[in-house]
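Field reference: sequence -> structure
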Amino acid sequence: MIHRILPLLTASLIALSAGVGPGAAQVNPFAPRIIINDRAVTEYEFQQRLLFMRLLNAPGDPEKEAMDALIADRLRVQEAKRLGMKPDEKAVLKGMEEFAGRARMTVDEFTKALGGAGVAPETFRDFVAAGVIWREVVRAKFGSSVTVSEAEIDRTIEGETRKMALAVAVSELIIPAPPGEEEQAMALARRIQSEVKSEAGFAAAAAQYSATGSREQGGRLPMMSAANLPPQVSGVILALSPGQVSAPLALPGAVALFQLRDIAEMRPENAAPVQVEYARLTLPPGEDSLRQIAQVQVRADTCKDIYGILPGLPESQMRIETHLMSEIPADLGMDLARLDPGESAVRNRGTANELLMLCARQPAAAEPVNRNAVRESLLNRKLEAQSDLYLARLRADALIRKP
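Structure field:
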């Protein structure tokens, strides 16, 4: 979206300039547009944010989205001030650089482009500063209580692996939602979702309402890897049962519905390579070894725990290995396929009893999965959820009124 800002700036400037007439000049730019906890948002601030969001081609009703964003920013800044916090200027500048960088511009180039369309530099700075200080507020309030466990990281990596090994057959129905018609499009999508009970019914609705080329095939898309879908779409689709229609998903300029027709394991030649790490504890046959294995199963949460439970075992009896699934014998691979990380199974090898524990499963890559990056991503998701609740409480408790 942001990469299209240069033509949008030009087009928006022409359109908005053409719309400026004598009536607009009569508006007092310093008159309060809305009052939040006795602090006013002026007409000038509103018009600036409205123009800024239009230039960025933000989805939804521009006036509503601009007002909602201004209210949210004011509440963020007010709460920061109440807590005695203010944005660090270096952090604000870095945020401005990152934002401008998405358009492949420097801050000076970006603010100059905005200024050419009538957006003041202070509008851009205030927009970034509110986000910067709010991140600091959220981290200060929830940073010590929000944690990510090793098990959560393992599950996330495991989930990505499973997603990459799935193929889905999906039908789509994309309803146009031009500015001002978002609510009508969403209402139509909800009605279709509630009424459609079959593949034939979804195909008929797609043929009638969908705006994409797939409408000619009743919205049917070919079988594809779930990993090839955008994350927000694959998450919706993988939660469905075959034949089920998703809840409406708001997209820029459209509302989407999806129907899952089928889901299957990908063919081995198409599946993404998977790498597994596993422990093999091999003990002589007999009741003593079975008791030791049972003890490990009860006490071990990870593969490395086995070393502490049964110390001093030689490598011939206890080892941790990492291999591509394609390199593992079929019988061992089938046993590993049934396990989640941290789970184990006992295998009777005839001449020995063997405990098999899955340590990790992840996509094979040129470089190992960066667990710190996964941890940071999960932490940010949790903090974002806390942030949304925090802001919702502030808004519910605020006195917001028109003058």
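Note: The longest helix spans residues 371-397.
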